[in-house]
Design brief:
The complex is a heterodimer of chains A (about 300) and B (about 425). Chain A has a single domain, classed as Thiamin diphosphate (ThDP)-binding fold, Pyr/PP domains (Rossmann fold, 3-Layer(aba) Sandwich). Chain A has 10 helices and 8 strands. An 8-stranded mixed beta sheet of chain A has the order 2-1-3-4-6-5-7-8, sandwiched between helices. The two termini of chain A are about 30 Å apart. With about 300 residues, chain A is α/β, with parallel strands linked by helices. The longest helix of chain A is centred in the first third of the chain and has 17 residues. Chain B has 3 domains: about 240 residues, Thiamin diphosphate (ThDP)-binding fold, Pyr/PP domains (Rossmann fold); about 130 residues, Rossmann fold; about 30 residues, no CATH class. In chain B, about 45% of the residues lie in helices and about 15% in strands. Chain B contains 15 helices and 16 strands. Chain B has a 6-stranded mixed beta sheet with strand order 10-12-11-14-15-16, sandwiched between helices. In chain B, strands 4-5-7-6-13 form a 5-stranded mixed beta sheet, with helices on both faces. Chain B has a two-stranded antiparallel ribbon with strand order 1-8. By secondary structure, chain B is of the alpha/beta class. The chains are: A alpha/beta (about 300), B alpha/beta (about 425). At the A-B interface, strand 2, helix 2 and helix 4 of A face helix 3, helix 5 and strand 9 of B. Strand 2 of chain A pairs parallel with strand 9 of chain B.
Chain lengths: ~300, ~425
């Protein structure tokens, strides 16, 4: 493609995704999806799994200018397989002009991507399916009221981890699990870093094979903060090193943003009600220290 | 074309080949696997156009099948038993998409206990899904049924997926003489798939399978699917008439065998109906007025056609190769519902459960079922439902249990010690 995105002013000026959706105010997933859609364009078919974004297309309206297929929570990548294979068959038989071809895009939340849909995703990666997978990761089963999922970070309070120490598990490393399949591309993005996001989506758009994107999606209702803070919280996730921006391509993992001066993770955690219990008296050993240590360990390995 | 010996599985594969399917999402499961192996062999050998993809589960297989059909290609797939249940979420879902394709189910009893041989609890678990169902009694019906199923599924007034059912082992692995339809005639009978507006293309954006909010739009789509399914009785009848004219074989909505003037009729589906046919002949030889009624089309449920076929019949022996646990036979329940309140309905609908997990139903049992039903007609008292099981079978089970107990006690010193010290069953 000729339109290489290098600077903020190169970002698309047209906005393709319609407004008036039932997503929550300040939804970080919708923020990311707006930007992703502007880069991918309308010659796309979104294959969706059960989650918040399922409510984008509610009969008889859709915010998408292109196509949409809702499948089920576990098998959106298999739906993408069926659509991609059928398009290829139609192209091969001359029953579909090449101008009518579509980019097949799976759109699921973390509940599907990290858990129920993982088997179908692994299968699609085994088969080297030519598709893009967008996981909007709001770190819990958000559409049902933010119960913990295997994407939930350590210590977070959710509807099913209300105890004084929050969620006892650790966020699953989906990036590495996906990368272990050696797909064409894996990247992490976030809506609050639009240039980094657009560069990666543009790169993915112009490749073939499985292209996997995880978008950390600040969630005002699930993370308990004011909807106006979504962008700032997203920026803090990157600055504090909690959400590393990186990509996997040609067998190498490259960090696209290395935060040299990382503010303490507490700056990120304090802004969110889901972590407020970590700052109450009597938290010994300190979960905040534990979280900070893990972030430090991660970056010490990287740089 | 001269008949050739084919298993039910290979007959099913031939149905797909003659239908010139574009796409075959697959997953192996006994006793269905031979179907996808056969198709895979033809594709690899260049005997057949098309593409086969093995998914990582039946749930994904059904998702891919529905998605490909919704994109505009002709799709075939096959499964059985646990695979059908694993895919059940998508069985309902793709029917709701109105994705027209054909799924062959090779019937096999459901776990637990896990087993391999046939009964109909698997396919009947899908009865409320929106998939239409064609039930086959022999291998010839399998190849014919697959071809007809595509006509039915793709009919613009129907547009629903169709399941073609054959019994595991009894048909799947049994070679029978099958006359394969001539490919040219099959092409004429089944023209290329026209997806109409339901497809994906950049120049014609389409939102499929979107969510609804509230009961009113939900009911609208569910009712539309139901009405399309009901309409499929008429559509199927037309297809069967055309099939008969072209290929000379009767594939009507129901098979009626010696039902004229019958007092008692066996009512059942699947390959065991051929055993009932034989029993009808023997009973007729003995002077009894007995017949067989076998629905080929079970979804949509052809209530009026069944009621017509049973006019003047006094007693029906309903033989269910399935068990709705805690309720009884599914075919019996549905027949009662279809006939209740009809003035000419048979007075007695006797329920028999048999043939579970491939268990034989013997000629003597057919004679006995006819006798029980005749007796009920004579006395006017419907007998309680019967679970077919013989004293010999029970004795064999008891023997196996006795042997196992002796072996355990003789060979397990730990167990013996525990029993001596009273630790026995808790250990």
């Amino acid at each position: 493609m000729s339109d290489i995105i290098k600077r903020m002013k190169d970002l698309p000026s047209t906005h393709l995704l319609g407004t008036g959706t039932p997503m929550c105010s300040g939804c970080g997933a919708l923020e990311a999806l707006h930007q992703i859609y502007d880069v991918l364009g309308e010659k796309t078919v979104f294959v969706n799994a059960a989650g918040c974004m399922t409510l984008l297309s509610v009969y008889p309206f859709t915010p998408f200018r292109g196509s949409w297929l809702y499948t089920a929570m576990a098998s959106a990548p298999a739906g993408a397989q069926g659509v991609r294979d059928a398009l290829d068959i139609l192209l091969q038989q001359g029953r579909l002009p090449s101008a009518d071809d579509l980019q097949v895009v799976v759109l699921t939340g973390d509940g599907s991507a990290y858990g129920m849909g993982m088997s179908a995703t692994s299968g699609a990666l085994d088969r080297d399916l030519d598709f893009i997978y967008i996981c909007y990761d709001n770190e819990g089963y958000g559409n049902t009221g933010q119960q913990y999922s295997s994407a939930t970070p350590h210590g977070a309070a959710t509807a099913t981890s209300r105890g004084s120490r929050g969620y006892p598990g650790y966020k699953k490393d989906l990036f590495s699990i996906w990368a272990a399949h050696r797909p064409s591309y894996v990247a992490t993005v976030i809506g609050s870093e639009p240039l980094d996001l657009a560069k990666k989506i543009e790169k993915a758009r112009d490749m073939k094979g499985p292209r996997m994107i995880i978008a950390l999606s600040p969630c005002p209702t699930g993370w308990d903060y004011d909807p106006g803070d979504s962008v700032e919280i997203g920026k803090l996730a990157v600055k504090t090193g909690v959400w590393p921006l990186k990509e996997y391509v040609d067998g190498q993992v490259v960090h696209t943003r290395i935060p040299r001066e990382r503010p303490p993770v507490a700056d990120y955690l304090r802004r969110q009600g889901r972590f407020s219990h970590l700052f109450q008296a009597g938290q010994e050993p300190s979960l905040v220290d534990d979280i900070q240590q893990r972030v430090d360990d991660y970056w010490n390995e990287v740089v | 074309m001269a008949p050739t010996l084919l298993t039910g599985n290979v007959a099913a594969a031939w149905g797909a080949r003659l239908a010139r399917v574009d796409y075959i999402p697959a997953f192996p499961i006994t006793p269905q696997t031979e179907i996808i192996e056969t198709l895979g062999g033809w594709l690899d050998g260049g005997d057949m156009e098309g593409r086969m993809v093995t998914l990582e589960s039946e749930h994904s297989m059904l998702t891919a099948a529905g998605a490909a059909a919704a994109t505009g290609v002709r799709v075939f797939s096959a499964t059985s038993s646990q695979g059908l249940l694993h895919a059940m979420e998508m069985i309902y879902t793709v029917a709701g998409w109105r994705a027209p394709f054909v799924l062959v189910n090779v019937s096999r009893g459901l776990s637990a206990p896990i087993t391999l041989e046939a009964d109909h609890n698997d396919v009947l678990a899908a009865r409320d899904s929106g998939f239409l169902q064609i039930h086959c009694a022999d291998c010839q019906e399998v190849v014919d049924g697959v071809l007809m199923a595509y006509r039915l599924a793709e009919d613009p007034a129907v547009r629903l997926p169709v399941m073609v059912n054959l019994d595991g082992f009894y048909l799947s692995f049994t070679r029978e003489p099958v006359t394969l339809p001539d490919p040219a005639a099959a092409n004429e009978f089944l023209p290329p798939f026209d997806p109409g507006m339901i497809r994906f293309a950049a120049s014609a954006p389409e939102s499929q399978a979107v969510a609804v909010l509230g009961g009113s739009p939900y009911s609208y789509f569910r009712y539309e699917t139901h009405l399309a399914a009901q309409h499929a009785v008429t559509v199927y009848s037309g297809i069967a008439a055309e099939f008969r004219a072209r290929f000379g074989r009767d594939r009507g909505v129901v098979e009626t065998y010696r039902c004229d003037d019958a007092e008692v009729v066996f009512y059942m589906i699947g390959s065991f109906a051929t055993k009932a046919r034989e029993a009808v002949d023997r009973l007729r030889d003995a002077g009894q007025r007995v017949g067989l009624l076998r629905p080929r089309l079970l979804r949509p449920y052809p209530a009026d056609i069944i009621a017509d076929a049973l006019q003047g019949v006094q007693g029906v022996a309903v033989i269910d190769q399935n068990l709705s646990v805690g309720q009884g036979g599914i075919l019996h329940t549905e027949l009662c519902a279809a006939l209740y309140g009809r003035p000419q309905a048979p007075a007695v609908l006797a329920s028999f459960i048999g043939g579970l997990g491939g268990r034989e139903i013997t000629p003597e049992e057919f004679y006995q079922m006819a006798a029980v039903t005749r007796e009920a007609v004579a006395t006017g008292k419907t007998p309680p439902p019967r679970l077919l099981y013989t004293e010999d079978e029970l004795r064999e089970i008891r023997k196996l249990q006795s042997i196992a107990l002796v072996e355990r006690d003789e060979t397990s010193p730990t167990r013996e010690r525990q029993q001596q010290t009273g630790g026995g069953d808790e250990a």
